[in-house]
Amino acid sequence: MLPIDDPGPDLIHDLFERQRPTALALRESKAAQRKTKLERLRDALLARREAWYAAFEADLRKPPLEVDLTELLPVVDEARHAISHLARWMRPRRVSATLTTLGTTARILYQPRGRCLIIGPWNYPVNTLLGPLVSAIAAGNTVILKPSEFTPHVNAVVAELVAEVFEPAEVALVQGGVATAQQLLALPFDHVFFTGSPAIGKLVMSAAAQHLTSVTLELGGKSPTIVDETADLERAADLIVWGKFTNGGQTCVAPDHVLVHRSVRERFVQRCLDVIAARYGASDAAIAASPDLARMITTRHAERLGALIDDALAHGATRLAGGGYDAAARYVAPTLLGDVPPRARIAGEEIFGPVLPIEAYDTLDEVIDRINAAPKPLALYVFTRSKRMAERVLAQTSSGGVCVNHCVQQYAHAGLPFGGVNHSGIGSAHGEFGFKAFSHERAFLASGRVMALSLFYPPYANWKAGLSRKLVRMIGWI
Q1: Domain total in the chain
Q2: Count H helices, E strands: the chain?
Q3: pLDDT category of residue 2 using cuts at 50, 70 and 90
Q4: Are residues 238 and 150 located together in one domain of the fold?
Q5: What separation in angstroms does the CA of 389 have from each of 378, 395, 408?
Q6: 156-181 pLDDT, tens per residue?
Q7: Within this chain, do residues 101 and 137 fall inside the same structural domain, yes or no?
């Protein structure tokens, strides 16, 4: 296995070239062969439960329950779903002849893209690296994995797992920093799957464009949450607090900020305060000592969040809960902020931490206008008992995904496409959508015994021209 330090362009190039013949051979791999690899990957993942707990404690101080539910379970379920449906996904899909292709047969063939690169982030370093790997293996590709350098303990376990299950000529893990990522992106991969920030996503897309490499970009953005006057406030607070503070708020689909109807704002805030106290502690000291609250990935990230809180308060925001932080300990308290002015940094930056602005609104029009004025988010959450209100928000806004009276769980549904739109991402992942992301949908057409096209070969006699005019007119009116 390559070392954690930058392995250098020569070693990376050699590894890339080693995967070329394997990628060509995998074009003929069968469903049973791919399933066997997925089963081995799943088993190796589950065999390391205690190692995962220890690694996540070291890198993120993440509670074991959150490791199970947000890191291991999504990968295991992705593998289970792929194993169950892979034979159907791989099967060529017949397509009926159109009026202009009468006499032919057609199918859509699913062919592996080839050599793929998966670049994972630090916030969910197993889920976001091995989940796409499941899709890539299901589609019959070779893969080079590049995890974030900010999770060294988790990466060590991932490296051990990959080395046990795969030969480097099929799947390899390359560790390193920015230089390593740049060296990988300089290679002509057949597909790049990147999860991270929109800013880095632009760099990845620019590098891929040099080789016209296809990309899947799972990015982020400021996912808004609407709580209207009809909402079940208890359920809304329970779910929003859970979705926001799991993994210390370091979740791309976490609620970024809440827009709550002015008439129910105080009751909603009080319920959020009650939930925080019940889950993490009733005092600042108890919350800081809670084993159930993950830490920030680095002191720098904790400092950034602390600066966002201080800036918001300096601009007139109200501290409703929390507000404390200890950058050296990578700790940021679960924080609720009210009355955040538009000029505060937190109003424009993706928060990516346990800080939740709660703002009152008066009309749904102003909420929709605000959402549409911002870049399209990865997720949108709506809490309401009004079907009409929910339908209006869905019709008049755009986002990667949307939940009504729920949040975050759209990510866990293997039957749904997960991805953003424009600023929040390109392409979809999970389940069959992930399989297709790592597959080339190849058009196949074959001639039948009777070929209508022969009627229109040159020379173009008058009767042929008349027939073509009638054909255009006939099809145009059907």
Answers
A1: 2
A2: 17, 18
A3: very low
A4: no
A5: 21, 10, 20
A6: 999 999 999 999 999 999 999 999 99
A7: yes
Sign of CA dihedral 169, 172, 176, 177: positive
- The helix/strand/coil state of 147 is coil
Q: Exposure of 425 by Cβ count < 10 A (0-12 exposed, 13-18 middle, 19+ buried)?
A: buried
What is the chain's Cα-based Rg?
26
Q: What positions carry a catalytic annotation?
A: 218, 252
- One domain, residues 407 and 433: no
Residues 208 and 90 in one domain: yes
C-alpha 150/C-alpha 297 separation (Å) is 7
Give tens-digit pLDDT for 51-97: 999 999 999 999 999 999 999 999 999 999 999 999 999 999 999 98
Q: Which of 140, 139, 159 is nearest to 149 (CA)?
A: 159
Structural domain contains residue 463: no
pLDDT band for position 399 (50/70/90)? very high
Does one domain contain both 154 and 286?
no
- DSSP secondary structure letter of residue 418: B
Is residue 88 in a domain? Answer: yes
Give CA–CA dist 456/122, Å, rounded: 60
CA distances, 295 to each of 51, 250, 287 (Å):
19, 9, 12
Alpha-carbon distance 406 to 243, whole Å? 9
Residue 441 has pLDDT above 70, yes or no: yes
At 71 the three-state DSSP class reads helix
Q: Write down the pLDDT at residue 5.
A: 54
Question: Which residues constitute the domain of residue 106?
Answer: 9-219+428-440
Collect contacts of 313-320 with beta carbons under 8 A, ≥24 apart.
313/337, 315/340, 315/341, 315/343, 315/344, 316/341, 317/341, 317/344, 317/346, 317/357, 320/269, 320/272, 320/273, 320/358
2 located within any domain: no
E strands present in 257-363: 257-261, 318-321, 325-326, 331-332, 335-338, 355-361
Per-residue tokens: 56: 């996540």
